[in-house]
């Protein structure tokens, strides 16, 4: 029997109703040439049993090791040509897998791709709307020639994933920026990544973000994670940049919605020499970016 085209890998830890909606959405997929692998990362809520009832191949571990390790376990058992990672709190559209396959077939040189959230999150509270629209805005404004990766809706050729060693589960034992770091290694190794704006997920990441997380996450949490990553052994053997150059790169964060750019900034030795005036200028520029998000959001809502 021929191997499947996609091995859909879903890591889950106590997924609850979000995970059930994720599985429901995959059941509705128009693409049938796939195998579904669920990696139960130490759940205690019956997520593994639910996945088995839906016909998934289930891999269970006794204690939570984080999504990076869970995805690696799934990849080890996968037989598909491509690994298609989907987060357990996301809902694929019926055409999501079809559109990803169309890109891969039209561009055989593409080694990895990732999609984005749609612009209509199910949760109606302000924080959830802001977080999902910010994510969608960042990707819709981004270049299709990507330098990073997103595992919420991301595809990698299985042989390529194995060649670079998968996700770094040692450095990222908890949910963090393990997918962004994977993207950097892919590009450093000469592989091609596409940001595919037409490959979308429902914002069934419809979790109603707690306000304390919603306020912190766009800047502070991303900064903490990226700073920890930058301090975690990454080389700083780079030419010193001026404060102005650093601010120019900070503008690219787009209100820190694109954590990959924050990683690039924090890897620079100039980070420790930036002046307070640059901080002030950067905050003003980030507010300008927020205005861009607001205008974009108003535009898509007025159209719909």
List the helices and strands and how they pair.
Layout: E1 6-12, H1 16-27, E2 34-41, H2 47-53, E3 57-61, H3 67-77, E4 82-86, E5 91-92, H4 96-106, E6 112-117, H5 126-140, E7 153-157, H6 158-163, H7 178-188, E8 193-202, H8 211-231, H9 243-251, H10 259-266, H11 276-303
List keywords for this structure.
304 residues, 11 helices, globular, alpha/beta, eight-stranded mixed β-sheet
Fraction of residues in helix: 40-55%
**SS-based structural class?**
alpha/beta
Q: Helical stretch count? A: 11
Radius of gyration: 19 Å
Major sheet, described briefly?
Answer: 8 strands, mixed
Question: Beta fraction of the residues?
Answer: 15-25%
End-to-end separation in angstroms reads: 45 Å
- Poorly predicted runs are 205-268, 270-277
The gross shape turns out to be globular
What is the averaged pLDDT score? 75
Please state how the strands of the largest beta sheet are arranged side by side: 3-2-1-4-7-6-8-5
By DSSP, the count of extended strands is 8
Order of helices and strands: EHEHEHEEHEHEHHEHHHH
